[in-house]
Design a protein that fits this description.
There is one protein chain. The chain is of the alpha/beta class. It folds into 4 domains: about 160 residues, VC0802-like (2-Layer Sandwich); about 170 residues, Rossmann fold (3-Layer(aba) Sandwich); about 100 residues, RNA methyltransferase domain (HRMD) like (Transcription Regulator spoIIAA, 2-Layer Sandwich); about 240 residues, Vaccinia Virus protein VP39 (Rossmann fold, 3-Layer(aba) Sandwich). The chain is about 35% helix and about 20% strand. It has a 7-stranded mixed β-sheet.
Length: about 775
């Protein structure tokens, strides 16, 4: 027999191991998208249903079909399957259909109808009558899977999803599914730890799924024993009742022996309701006498709850923002939990599942390994750690300190020493400004020396963002690499920031869609502070970090002007200006950007500072298109457009010099008579159109918006305030010009060679 076990994403290797233990032919086991294929006898299929902890369903292959390109061809091939071998007239049945890359099958119900007709007609030919169809609670379920023109006909042996063990009577959207809990335990190496009688604690146990699955695993209890009378194959014509009875007896015998060898298992939660639910579920699973549930604060558990003189496994699915809400509170929770781990569990192993991986950094541990698992649609990271005991931790700390001293005492190369001297000089020059302004994230270097061409920013005196400008082609690769190393060595020596916190990128001209590709997918974010506010920054995944440090004075201006005003942030990027407006007392804010990623980032920045709710709106749209189609008016508008952008999705390009006139006019249509538009860009050759100065009150404020750490490069950006004149000016012709052709959203941006910094890279226009 040929079987297909469907699994959740990244569970198929675990299911493959389960197939081997169930008796599958080892050479036949094949991991495929969506699950595992294997061959074996009926006993192997029954064993898999009974013992699998990670699979969702088990299907038995009945036949295949090639070159199926019409409904009639599907019907003809289905007629060749001996359905009468699997179904009686007394059985009800249903047909389920899935399809991929099958153009002719637009509606799965059509495919199901064709297979149903084939089954009915086959029975009529043999018995002059047909079995009934029942789509709610059928006795037998058949599956058709179409892959292009290839068809696969299956019998569903499991019926219900195998993850539904039956011990959870009530459920919630935040509950961890049983097969995901089992997968996490297997990834954490729990079976080996349980065999050594190591204890297990789930400090965020919720409804108790992880401790219960751990007890079932440790006691060698087959998950299928909990619902042994609820398999679809029990109503299958080919069912072997004696074989199933034998396998059940064997599983019960193994469970009885295993119950004597369950280590200590504990579930903690701060919610009394969750503890009550967990206790009820454990009782339903028959393992309540082997698990201790108690109300505990994960950051400050009672001493008696911590096993003495032993080490074990901490494993949990802590709350995260997608499920539970406010991320700022969660960061505090994770930080306090991390402190508790180091204080109370030296020598223990820890496995945590997190839907937002950056939360894991708050526990201040470096994982030994990670896995990607899915909790429904939520992509989660399973991170596995070792909590070092004090002796090991002291030894590693001493080793790291020795290595750092060794680096500091090592003699720098002449080039690195020269570069370090320039950094020291810049740091001395900025010292008074930084102390006076309270600035903790700043630019310390910007291509001050031609041979060391880079922009270097310090964040919170903890992290360095070094962007090297691509060297000319005539510079040899070896020489370029040497200069980059000298810059990194110089930064480390002057700032004392560890090498692992120096993030290096190369800035070069980008073309077409390459401009906005992610550089990495680590998903690591850090929190920086600025003028009493906090922002998420990312040093690895994008060319820019999520905030433009040279716009600090502009953001302060926005905060000063925002009280009791309605604020619009065009080309909103990560919403830093929106946060300042909210902090300044804005009545409402609207942030417009084509990138949903950046809008989500912006929303997180507002949440981080305690600003949320209906008064803060986010629009994923092309800014020009949004301006021409919306009727909202605002008291304060900020826009910092790109220098140049180009996209196949837009009939024309955007050029800041050519197109700023119509962009500003469109924005001014949304500005109240006494409102202010703050317009900024960083094209070094930019000239404001005479038309704008003729029809509006324009004041260039560039000199007040360049912070001291950027004065070495005065062309970093230019900035204006634009207001309506006291007497309304007719601009009908300009508005008419704007509507001559349809504007469509744009997704890709390309940097102009005359651009001096990264502002034009920050969002899609």
């Amino acid at each position: 027999m040929t079987f297909f076990a469907s699994t959740a994403a990244n569970h198929n290797d675990l299911a493959a191991d389960e197939a081997l233990l169930a008796g599958a032919d080892e050479s036949s086991i094949r991991i495929v998208p969506g699950g595992v294929e294997f061959t074996g006898n009926l006993e192997a299929g029954y064993r898999f249903c009974l013992w699998s902890r990670t699979a969702s369903r088990l299907l038995l292959l009945l036949g295949t079909g090639e070159n199926i390109e019409t409904g009639d061809q599907l019907y003809y091939r289905a007629m060749q399957i001996p359905w009468f071998e699997h179904l009686t007239l007394k059985n009800s049945f249903m047909v389920q259909v899935t399809a991929q890359k099958t153009r002719w099958l637009k509606n799965p119900n059509f495919g199901a109808l064709k297979v149903k007709d084939a089954i009915a007609d086959q029975f009529r030919e043999i018995h002059d009558e047909r079995p009934s169809v029942n789509t709610e609670n059928p006795d037998v379920i058949f599956h058709l899977h179409m892959d292009g023109i290839h068809g696969y006909f299956y019998l569903d042996l499991s019926g219900r999803s195998l993850h539904k063990r039956g011990y959870r009577r009530s459920d919630s959207s935040a509950s961890l599914k049983e097969h995901l809990a089992a997968a996490l335990l297997l990834r954490a190496g729990w079976p080996d730890k349980a065999s050594r009688m190591e204890p297990l604690i789930d400090p965020f146990c919720g409804s108790g799924t992880i401790p219960i699955e751990a007890a079932l695993m440790a006691s060698d209890t087959a998950p299928g024993l909990l619902q042994q009378d609820n398999y679809a194959f029990l109503r299958w014509k080919g069912h072997d009742a004696e074989l199933w009875k034998t396998l059940i007896a064997e599983a019960e015998n193994r469970r009885n022996k295993g119950m004597a060898h369950i280590p200590k298992i504990a579930g903690w939660d701060i919610s009394a309701h969750s503890i009550q639910s967990a206790e009820s579920h454990a009782q339903n699973a028959g393992v309540d006498s082997y698990i201790t549930f108690s109300i505990q604060d994960s950051a400050n558990p009672s001493p008696e709850a911590i096993p003495a003189d032993t080490t074990g496994l901490i494993i949990s699915d802590p709350p995260y923002g997608v499920r539970m809400g406010i991320e700022a509170d969660l960061r505090v929770l994770y930080k306090n939990f991390g402190n508790s781990l180091g204080r109370n569990f030296p020598g223990w192993h820890v496995s945590l599942l997190a839907g937002e991986p950056d939360l894991l950094r708050e526990i201040k541990l470096r994982p030994d390994s990670t896995n990607v698992l899915y909790n429904g649609p939520i992509k989660c990271t399973a991170a596995h750690y070792t909590i070092f005991d004090k002796e090991t931790r002291d030894r590693l700390t001493e080793k790291a300190e020795y290595k750092q001293r060794e680096r500091e005492e090592a003699e720098l190369s002449p080039g690195a020493e020269m570069f370090a001297n320039r950094l020291r000089k810049n740091k001395r020059m900025l010292k008074a400004f930084l102390k006076r302004s309270g600035t903790t994230s700043y630019r310390i270097y910007d291509a001050d020396m031609p041979e060391y061409s880079a922009a270097i920013d310090i964040y919170e005196d903890k992290w360095v963002h070094l962007q090297e400008y691509a060297p000319p082609e005539e510079i040899e690769q070896a020489a370029a690499e040497t200069r980059l190393k000298e810059m990194v060595d110089g930064v480390n020596r002057v700032t004392g920031i560890a090498y692992e916190h120096i993030f290096v990128k190369q800035r070069k001209k980008q073309r077409g869609s390459n401009q906005y590709n992610k550089r990495a997918s680590r998903g690591q974010t850090y929190i920086m502070k600025e003028q009493g506010l906090k922002f998420f920054v990312n040093f690895t995944d994008y060319l820019d970090t999520g905030i433009f440090l040279d716009h600090r004075p502009v953001r302060n201006l926005i905060r000063d002007l925002s009280n009791n005003r309605r604020f619009l942030n065009l080309f909103g990027y990560t919403g830093t200006a929106t946060v300042y407006a909210a902090d300044g007392g804005a009545l409402s804010t609207a942030t417009v950007d084509t990138s949903k990623t950046y809008l989500a980032w912006a929303e997180k920045n507002l949440d981080l500072n305690g600003f949320s709710g209906m008064s803060h709106q986010f629009y994923a749209a092309d800014c020009m298109d949004w301006l021409l189609t919306q009727n909202h008016t605002f008291d304060l508008i900020f826009m910092d457009p790109p220098t140049f952008s180009n996209s196949k999705s837009r009939p024309d390009t955007f050029d800041i010099q050519r197109d700023h006139r119509k962009l500003i006019v469109a924005a001014m249509r949304h500005l109240e008579r006494n409102g202010t538009l703050i317009f900024s860009n960083n094209f070094r050759k930019f000239e404001l159109a005479d038309y704008i100065e003729d029809y509006y009150l324009v004041e260039e404020i560039t000199h007040t918006t360049i912070p001291e750490d950027f004065l070495r490069k005065k062309s970093i950006h230019r900035c204006w305030t634009i207001r309506h004149k006291a007497k309304p000016v007719k601009v009908k012709k300009e508005v008419k010009d704007l509507r001559l052709k349809k504007i469509v959203p744009k997704k890709i941006m390309q940097k102009n060679p005359d651009s001096t910094d990264s502002h034009d890279l920050k969002l899609d226009f």
